[in-house]
Design brief:
11 strands, 118 residues
Length: 118
Amino acid sequence: HVQLVESGGGSVQAGGSLRLSCAASGYTYDVDCLGWFRQAPGKEREGVARISLRDGSTYYADSVKGRFTISQDNAKNTVFLQMNSLKLEDTAMYYCAAVSCRAWSGYVWGQGTQVTVS
C-alpha cells in the first residue's frame, strides 16, 4: 500500500510563505492523483489543491487560487504545496492524500502538518 508523509508546516505571519512537502512511498504505481486538504478547528475538512501524477494537471479550491501552487517531483515521488500570501484563515492542519483525479475524495492519508498564520 501507499504511505504519505507530510513536512514543512510551521508558524508564519500573515502575508508570508510556506512550502509543504508530501513524500509518497510504497506501492505508488496505482496512484493517479495526490492532493492537499486542510481542516481548521471546528470546521470541515476541505480540498485545497490536487495534481495528476500522469500529466501534471492541477486543480485548486477557489479560496487558494493565485496564492497556492501544487507541483511534483516524479523522480522523488514528492508533491509540494507552495503557499504564498498566507492569510489568517489559512491556519489549519494540512493533509496530503491520494485522491480521485475528478473529485475531492481521498483514500490514503498522511498524518498531517500544522500551519499557523498569525
